[in-house]
Amino acid sequence: MSEPVAVxxxxxxxxxxxxxxxxxxxxxxxxDVMPGEFLLIMGPSGSGKTTLLSILGGILTPTKGxxxxxxxxLTSLRSRALARFRLQNVGFIFQGFNLFGALTARENVELAxxxxxxxxxxxxxxxxxxxxxxxxxxxxxxxPHDLSAGEKQRVAIARALAGSPPLIMADEPxxxxxxxxxxxxxxxxxxxxxxxxxxxxxxxHDPRIVDFADRIVRIEDGVLRT
Amino acid sequence: xxxxxxxxxxxDLPRFLVAQAGVAFAVGLIAIETGVYFGFLKxxxxxxxxxxxxxxVAARETPYFELAFPMRYDSLAKVRSVTxxxxxEALLIKTSVWRGPIHKLEYIRVFGxxxxxxxxxxxxxxxxxxASLSAPxxxxxxxxxxxxxxxxxxxxxxxxxxxxxxxxxxxxxTQPIISATFIYTSLRNATAYVAPxxxxxxxxxxxxxxxxxxxxxxxxxxxxxxxxxxxxxxxxPAATAKPAPTPxxxxxxxxxxxxxxxxxxxxxxxxxxxxxxxxxxxAVPGTRAYTQAEMAQQTDSYWVGRTGIGFIxxxxxxxxxxxxxxVAGQILYTSVVEHIKEYGTLRxxxxxxxxxxxxxxxxxxxxxxxxxxPGIALSLVIAAWSQANKGILILITPTSALxxxxxxxxxxxxxxxxxxxxxxxxxxxxxFKA
Lengths: 226, 434
Fold this sequence. Notes:
The complex is a heterodimer. By secondary structure, chain A is an alpha/beta fold. Chain A has helices at residues 49-56, 79-89, 105-115, 120-133, 149-161, 179-196; strands spanning 7-18, 21-33, 38-42, 64-69, 72-73, 90-93, 167-171, 199-204, 215-220, 223-225. In chain A, the strands form 2 sheets. In chain A, strands 6-7-8-3-9-10 form a 6-stranded mixed β-sheet. The longest helix of chain A has 18 residues, at 179-196. Chain A is globular and about 50 Å long. Chain A starts with 6 loop residues before the first strand and ends with a strand. Chain B is of the alpha+beta class. In chain B, the strands form 2 sheets. Chain B has a 6-stranded mixed beta barrel with strand order 3-4-8-5-7-6. A two-stranded antiparallel ribbon of chain B has the order 2-9. In chain B, helix 2 packs across helix 9 (292-306). At the A-B interface, helix 1, helix 2 and helix 3 of A face helix 1 and helix 11 of B.
């Protein structure tokens, strides 16, 4: 019996209408990602890699094609159902961290846990545990502006791990980090993929993290080249 | 749940304080402008509402409190004889002019009342001060209008009609916003102050001689004098003699035909006021009787419906409300736009719409409450100052303050709901843009 895929994309196309002209961001992309796999999606700017990540993560709906993620046919879901799917199944990591500046590191993680239904006491304990896991157990009460870029990204990773989602979508997670921090963050993402069995899909054009990937797919002009 | 709305609101304290200043301004605008409107209406009927009369009897044509048509003084006796009347007092309201110490003129309304009476007085006045009104040429004025009369206070003097009137006491909080300055005195004094000027006998005789044929019929002249049409002419003073000073007319007593404006009635215990009103108007033809509430309502309606003042003040109050809504709305909308990336992140994470509403509603209510406190405090200070120094009543009651809070909270929440649409429309894919 074959292992169930975390994400299965079939013949994805995405066309934007921009000023009367059609822009084909994706053309017939087909891709499977397995649980525990650390997948890199690489390509030049404007190649369609972020669009692909958005579709696989249930943020965008493709113009054509189908996505099955965690056993759910995403392309048949409406906006609210997609939001529920993301909340329960996807953790996001962003290039700009996108932490809530008014909240401490712990509160940032607690918020994600609370959104997923954790109680106040439980979310507090789990947030501390997650921060400990990413190496920030000693700085739970720091606000983002008191943390380094690497630390911020680790908070973002802890937040993405809240509720143990089976899918982690990372968009240029090392782009804002120096070599050391980039290395640490990538290592962390890979180890989390392995230890938690989560599929980690990472969009990047950072060559420093290529060696960590289980698999690399390249995309150019909306076409996937494996 | 982490209090995201509150924490985000307080994150940037200087910005928050500036925003709160905006909300406080909106609160102040609403509280003061509605306060001016209701203060104006309240001050216009204060003299009615603070009376102890159950029923007011007025000439049928009287349109509102200050513009009273005259009734005869002997109507008072008729009213007192009506069954169910426990007490009745007369009130006179007439317009005149105050000539201040440096001949500065001030348009005034002279109120004549019974200083020993129980049914009407200009606010809480000490008995001793009221008693001093029994002396001729005395009056009280509202402390806020001392400047308007161009005097320093008690002891200040001016001229009303032919009388040198001395201010013997001050009252407080009785002066309507837009009325002429109110002067309070006894009924007898008021009648004298507003009586048409009486020419001196010499002047009258001269006027009569001028109007008569060159050789007036002495019999006719004698008849005029006999029926009181003209006083007894005195011999004209010698051309070289110093002119005699004009004597101060005697305030005299009210005669049956003297004018009064209202008869205030206290009903005997248990008397049906509607029935009493009917008996009163029957006893004094040409009059109407009002309960205190009806009297106040009549004056209210006059100002609101028959003059542009009520409309203008109402319009200003509405403008205050609109400006307040706009200010609060803009502040909240800006706050949402400034944190749009954070809202986008929440969208990407899959947060439900209810979370967005909860966050913005929390912010809106906090802004409303925290802006309300300084806003209403400042308004109360301004209202107190205005009342004490300008005699302008800005009516801010606990009820109106709570209503202002409710309005500001509602408009903050409404603005928040408007602003949250911006957050709900945000494309979650935007979070991937660094």
